[in-house]
Design goal:
The chain has helices at residues 9-34, 36-39, 49-82. By secondary structure, the chain is an all-alpha fold. The chain has one domain (9-82).
């Protein structure tokens, strides 16, 4: 099974992290569309919830990208070690 297969651990991690982000984003859209008075309420530093949540969306996307990169790299290094290769060395495909 290669890394691009939909059943690979990389694809599962990607789908899982995408689902987490999608739920966070859907909650944001729901609040902004159906409870706009909450989004206009001032929070920390006099900045409203819409702005803080927007920043959080960006931060969560970055954190999830780092998690995905870290987990996929760890899996690649583990599989390379088990195959007797040094990390970063790839098998040549004919």
């Amino acid at each position: 099974m290669n890394a691009t297969s939909p059943h690979s651990p990389h694809a599962r991690w990607g789908i899982t992290l995408f689902a987490i982000y999608t739920l966070f984003y859907v909650a944001y859209v729901f609040v902004m569309a159906f409870i706009p008075e909450q989004s206009q309420r001032e929070w920390i530093g006099g900045v409203n919830l819409a702005v803080w949540w927007g920043f959080a969306l960006i931060a969560v996307a970055f954190v999830l990208a780092v998690v995905y990169g870290w987990t996929c790299r760890a899996e690649l290094e583990t599989s390379a070690y088990e195959a007797g290769q040094t990390p970063g060395e790839q098998e040549s495909q004919p």
